[in-house]
Every structure is written in structure tokens, then in C-alpha cells.
From TrEMBL:
Biological source species: Araneus ventricosus
Protein name in UniProt: Retrovirus-related Pol polyprotein from transposon 297
Keywords of the record: Endonuclease, Hydrolase, Multifunctional enzyme, Nuclease, Nucleotidyltransferase, RNA-directed DNA polymerase, Transferase
Xref: PANTHER family: PROTEIN CBG26694, PROTEIN NYNRIN-LIKE
Entry keyword annotation includes Aminoacyl-tRNA synthetase: no
Pfam families: RT_RNaseH_2
MF-aspect GO terms: endonuclease activity; RNA-directed DNA polymerase activity
Domain Reverse transcriptase/retrotransposon-derived protein RNase H-like: 15-112
Keyword Methyltransferase: no
InterPro entries hit by this protein: DNA/RNA_pol_sf, Retrovirus_Pol_polyprotein, Rev_trsase/Diguanyl_cyclase, RT_RNaseH_2
Length: 149
């Protein structure tokens, strides 16, 4: 988050010790394993999603042999309004945004969605949804997904 704050519109550029640590951590993460693998059309995709107070993220992978191999990663910082969402809504946002981000891999394909929250079951059983929840349900219903918690 320290590096992200430096890019905000009305922030003064002040490189701190925390920024340096964050930058070095980012460099380390980008230059070391795990190495990404190419997607295989003959294998089912696996989408793991998660959310926290600061952001959402996902890993798209496939099981090749006995090993689960990462294909791509997704993350997004939450804006101020989104940070006020309850945990369930943040988890749902992670699911919806991750599926949208990886739509070119997932569209029209059956895939496994893994989340650490019962939000998907809650969402699909929600009676008479309105507004944002209704739109999220609509987006998810066009997908061919299995899910596990």
C-alpha cells in the first residue's frame, strides 16, 4: 500500500523506509518463483479468490499431473467506498471482479471457484436481490462454475 499511496492524485511524493521495504519486496516477488505456466485447454481452470480490508485478489491455476500450477494473478486495491463493505460483500466483489478479469480464460468453460467464505452460496440463495447484488448474481449465473469453500 505505501507505493500505491505515492500515486494518488493529491499526495506528496515522499520516499520513506516503508516505501523502500515495499519496493524491495515487490522486486523480490516479481523476480522469483513460482513461475507461471501456459494454460492448457484440456484441463479445468481453478480460480482462488480472497479479499481483505485493503484489496482483493485471485490466482488462476490448473492441476497438471499432481501439481497445481499458477497461470495468472489478479489484484486490485479497494477504493474508500469499497473498504466500507462488509466482509461478505468484499468476498463477493473479489469473485465477480476476478471472473471478469479472467473472462478470456473462463468464458464458456466449466471451472472450479474456491473461496474461503460462504458468500457465493449466500448470494445464489438471496431472495429478491436488488441493485448491486442483483447485478452480481446476473454476472455469476452466466458462468459454468463449481465452487468450494
Amino acid at each position: 500500500r505505501p507505493l500505491h499511496k505515492l500515486t494518488e492524485a493529491r499526495s506528496n511524493f515522499n520516499w520513506t523506509e516503508e516505501c523502500e521495504k515495499s519496493f524491495n519486496s515487490l522486486k523480490q516477488a516479481l523476480t522469483t518463483s513460482p513461475v507461471l505456466t501456459y494454460p492448457r485447454t484440456d484441463k479445468e481452470f481453478i480460480l482462488d479468490t480472497d479479499a481483505c480490508n485493503e484489496g482483493i485478489g485471485a490466482v488462476l491455476s490448473q492441476k497438471i499431473g499432481n501439481e497445481e500450477c499458477a497461470i495468472a494473478y489478479f489484484s486490485k486495491s479497494l477504493g474508500k467506498p469499497e473498504r466500507n463493505y462488509c466482509v461478505m460483500r468484499k468476498e463477493l466483489l473479489a469473485i465477480v471482479k476476478s471472473i471478469e478479469h479472467f473472462h478470456h480464460y473462463l468464458y464458456g468453460r466449466k471451472f472450479l471457484l474456491r473461496t474461503d467464505h460462504a458468500s457465493l452460496r449466500w448470494l445464489l440463495n438471496f431472495r429478491e436481490p436488488e441493485g448491486q447484488i442483483a447485478r452480481w448474481i446476473q454476472r455469476l449465473l452466466i458462468q459454468r462454475l463449481n465452487y468450494s469453500e
